[in-house]
């Protein structure tokens, strides 16, 4: 197994390099003939090594003896190192050509001399560099071949498995279970039994229930106790337990089912007679088939296997345990049942039963406190708890238990505890394109909260995500991440304050990532961390330290081939100085994260990081970036979030034509955008754009940015002087924008602004819209167009508008906030609209705030606002009456604050759905709502929650 994993690690590096070579061959080598020949030779050598790795991996490296295994490890490490070096050379060629082409485009007067000189240089030097790497790889291939082929020749060919290195009998399971070691699964057991006993079926007589979870979480154990429960035994005529494992063979599995039913060996060998035999055995019977450890994600495999099952009696069930949500989606007719982790208490109980087996727990009470701490290291995984309990069983004093606690569970012997063998199989069967992505995650500390979008940008920067058709790299990366979720390598954790999903990696999975990336990834967590001699070959490094200045300097000296440097510590004790020579030492960096480091200045030497794709400088004191950063032609992502002192982007920022994501704050940063910012046509993320007055700084710079998506705030719109300029932004041709913020900073000409807003018409796919300080007299017609998919609208400080647009015609609008509109006196039926769609069919939240002259809202029909949940009036000084709100059958909450002239609650009363009424600083209403005595008391006395001027009014019973 260990050598098979080594093979998988090297295969992942080779896969990335071979894909890079293929891409390179298409784009670059037609220009450089000498390089082309060497690259093709290198490609053949890499394919030969990959075939060797595949051969050894498929046959599980029992082909190699112990002495050869050590050599194998060295070869694999060297292959990985040389693969990185070759990729660096290819990347350098591509970037240099890209730079020359970009310079020519920016200065058409330049001739091709510089370009020709560069290509000549490549022809002289690069073939030699590539050839040197190829020769080293060929030597390794020869050495590998001599050992592997010698061993193969000693074996009979029929003994060599050509399918799977993990033969099914190695991980076979049975239905027998020792319930003494089952803890914390009673509720799960009852839920699954309930599904098994239910009579609900779909179109087929047979229903399939997938039981999903990561390796070691206890799927098989839970299946065993369910399978043997008396209620289940009595409910089915036949019960069959089959261990599928990774070696999926439909004939073998079908024969196993037959043998389980008959108790005799099945001598049939062809699929058709075997399936016919099984069909005759199942016909007219109500059966339970348990398929344990199902791996294959091919629809066809399941279609063939389940053919005979359909003759079963109505109510027959198939219970499948799997690590893959993909499998669950293919097989399941019931929703997948996801098995959760145990709590620390249950882990300790499970561990204790093994640790104190044949012992009196009361005689070992002094060990319990230590044991509970060890149990936390299991992170809810039953397999880990049982394994640790087994080892603690042979430890008899506190010192030995403390040793286990402090050493960490991953110092346990791999061939005894069963944890790695259970989990590493998941890694071994990852597709090649996912192995690098998964292993890379080891540079983050355990219990790290992963943001999917951030991680995908890092994978992109490292070149792990390869183009596929016309699909965005980011979308391909999303597919990668989801595949890892489906295979239980990540678990959803929670939604953060920014409404973003957060994911975590189980401690055991994280340790596995560390194991498979030990040659290339390092995460230093404390100042006492020691550098291993092999660390000099590290490619990815993260520092989780309070004092990083010295460690960054040391890393740049020892690890000159670094591709990733992430400073994850957020507790720096002093300002970090970046010396000029730092970036000269780590010139192969693709990822650099120096966020939250109290940095004031970036040295000019940053331009030496020509391979850099991802740069995060967020939450620092930087005021400006050096001009030289514009030479980083390969840069894809630049983050400058929460750099509140940041003033300006470099003058030649337009040269960064490969930039895809620029993270600026919506406000409080730049005063203007650099000239010809529109050259950055590949931008997808641009949170803020400041419209300038000078040539090359206008809103038309957005025109060719057709890939913009997410949110954008466009400010200083007073500098847009005509509808023609507004049209140049092409907002109506940006279908991927979700949120648009339009803001003027001064009044300007009212007629001009009216035309400008009309010209800023967005694409109908827009979901959120904010309009601030607009000085036009009325809103454009597109704002109430039923074709728009707007979910949220915020209109603020539009002080000259006296009529609201017909927003009630927007079919999907859920949230609407209108504030600071001093000219609005009346809200009438026009607000709810007319036509086939009207009356806010989806609106849930409506807020009127700081409306100094609003006096009345009328014209509300009985069919308007039927889904409104919350209605708020705040600081409406002249508001005298509310509309009939009693028809608002979904209204749950009504807030009235600082409305001193409001005379009374609606005469018809309030809707029966109302659960909360809050009245603040509204004297007349407060008086009319006095308990028992107020004239409006009868209208509100049944509302569960009433709060008047911060005083809770008890509900009348």
Automatic annotation (TrEMBL):
Q: Which InterPro entries match?
A: Apaf_helical, Leu-rich_rpt, Leu-rich_rpt_typical-subtyp, LRR_dom_sf, LRR_R13L1-DRL21, NB-ARC, P-loop_NTPase, RX-like_CC
The UniProt record lists the Disease resistance protein winged helix domain at 443-512
Domain Disease resistance N-terminal span(s) in chain numbering: 14-101
Single Gene Ontology BP annotation: defense response to virus
Q: Which domain of life is it from?
A: Eukaryota
Return the SUPFAM superfamilies for the record: L domain-like, P-loop containing nucleoside triphosphate hydrolases
| Gene Ontology MF terms in the entry | ATP binding
Which keywords does this Swiss-Prot/TrEMBL entry list? ATP-binding, Leucine-rich repeat, Nucleotide-binding, Plant defense, Repeat
Domain R13L1/DRL21-like LRR repeat region: from-to ranges: 699-821
Q: Does the keyword Nucleotide-binding apply?
A: yes
Q: Which residues form the NB-ARC domain?
A: 186-359
A Pfam cross-reference name = LRR_R13L1-DRL21
Q: Which family does it belong to?
A: Belongs to the disease resistance NB-LRR family.
Name-wise, this protein is Uncharacterized protein
Species, as recorded: Cinchona calisaya
